[in-house]
């Protein structure tokens, strides 16, 4: 069975988290796979880290550098809580660089603390009630904890918005954040799992995808330059590197 993009199969919905989680998380999402045989799904890098509830346990989906293939069972339901940029390391207690490209049970990081958290989750009458229960449990664990790294959050926003053309990334960030290059790279790896240039590559590609969603009829070449690529060929190379396919194939939902 051919792999498909994660959000093109089954039911997928996303919304902002409740106020009690907003200090650490930006969104909660639900992905429910079809009841019949589910195809392998492709997870494309998006510079995010998720806390997920799946099959009665919490797991961590670390930041990806390249496409990941997952094979969830038919009918699986995954509830994900997306960390705000720069918040995961303090909430989890480990640098993001230690969880790059991995999917691991929260117990591998927390031991008995993870079981205590999981044991609080009870059967719910429906999916909405389950999501609300998980928000309450995770919110109780998050309340009062200062986990966000404001400086790294700001750095993420600057890169996500896009730098002026022909602007060298690392020197710009050094001036903007008042950091040495060594400190800058260490802080990025702790917060995001990789350095500024990798983060820039991933966010630039998602900037292109957002632009295309807003202007579907626009020329790919024009959108590529607007997103920060040198030209369309540059975009295609990066699309293959990050998703395994061209932008045209990605738009059609094919892997």
The total of beta strands comes to 9
Distance between the termini: 12 Å
Strand content: 15-25%
Query: Quick check: average pLDDT?
Result: 91
Number of domains in the coordinates?
A: 2
What string gives the helices and strands in order? EEEEEEEEHEHHHHHHHHHH
| Tally of helical runs | 11
Helical proportion, percent range: 40-55%
The secondary-structure class comes to: alpha+beta
In which order are the strands of the major sheet placed? 2-3-8-5-6-9
Shape: globular
Describe this structure in words.
With 255 residues, this protein is α+β, with helices and mostly antiparallel strands. It has 2 domains: 4-142, no CATH class; 150-251, Orthogonal Bundle (Arc Repressor Mutant, subunit A), CATH 1.10.10. Helices cover 43% and strands 16% of the residues. The protein contains 11 helices and 9 strands. It has helices spanning 88-92, 107-110, 112-119, 127-142, 150-161, 169-177, 181-192, 196-214, 220-227, 232-243, 247-251; strands at 4-5, 11-16, 25-32, 41-43, 50-54, 57-61, 68-70, 77-83, 103-105. The strands form 2 sheets. The protein has a 6-stranded antiparallel sheet. Strand 5 and strand 6 form a beta hairpin. Helix 5 crosses helix 8 (196-214) and helix 8 crosses helix 9. The two termini are 12 Å apart. The model has no long low-confidence stretch (mean pLDDT 91).
Secondary-structure map with pairings?
Layout: E1 4-5, E2 11-16, E3 25-32, E4 41-43, E5 50-54, E6 57-61, E7 68-70, E8 77-83, H1 88-92, E9 103-105, H2 107-110, H3 112-119, H4 127-142, H5 150-161, H6 169-177, H7 181-192, H8 196-214, H9 220-227, H10 232-243, H11 247-251
Parallel strand pairs: 1-4
Antiparallel strand pairs: 2-3, 3-8, 4-7, 5-6, 5-8, 6-9
């Amino acid at each position: 069975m051919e792999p498909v993009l994660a959000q093109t199969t089954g039911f997928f919905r996303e919304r902002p988290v409740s106020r009690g989680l907003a200090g650490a998380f930006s969104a909660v999402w639900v992905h429910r796979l079809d009841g019949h045989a589910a195809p392998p799904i492709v997870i494309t890098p998006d510079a995010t880290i998720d806390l997920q509830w799946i099959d009665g346990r919490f797991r961590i989906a670390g930041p990806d550098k390249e496409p990941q293939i997952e094979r969830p069972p038919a009918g699986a339901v995954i509830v994900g809580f997306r960390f705000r940029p720069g918040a995961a390391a303090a909430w989890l207690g480990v640098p993001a660089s230690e969880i790059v490209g991995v999917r691991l049970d929260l117990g591998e990081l927390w031991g008995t603390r993870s079981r205590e958290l999981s044991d609080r989750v009870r059967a719910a009458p429906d999916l909405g009630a389950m999501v609300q229960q998980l928000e309450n449990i995770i919110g109780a664990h998050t309340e009062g904890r200062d986990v966000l790294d404001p400086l790294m959050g700001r750095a993420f926003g600057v890169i996500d918005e896009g730098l002026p053309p022909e602007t060298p990334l690392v020197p710009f960030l050094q001036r903007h954040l008042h950091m040495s290059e060594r400190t800058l790279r260490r802080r990025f790896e702790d917060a995001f799992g990789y350095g500024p240039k990798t983060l820039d590559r991933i966010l630039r590609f998602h900037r292109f995808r957002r632009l295309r969603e807003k202007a579907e009829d626009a020329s790919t070449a024009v959108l590529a330059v607007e997103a920060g690529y040198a030209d369309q060929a540059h975009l295609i190379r990066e699309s293959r590197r990050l998703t395994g396919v061209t932008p045209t194939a990605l738009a059609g939902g094919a892997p």
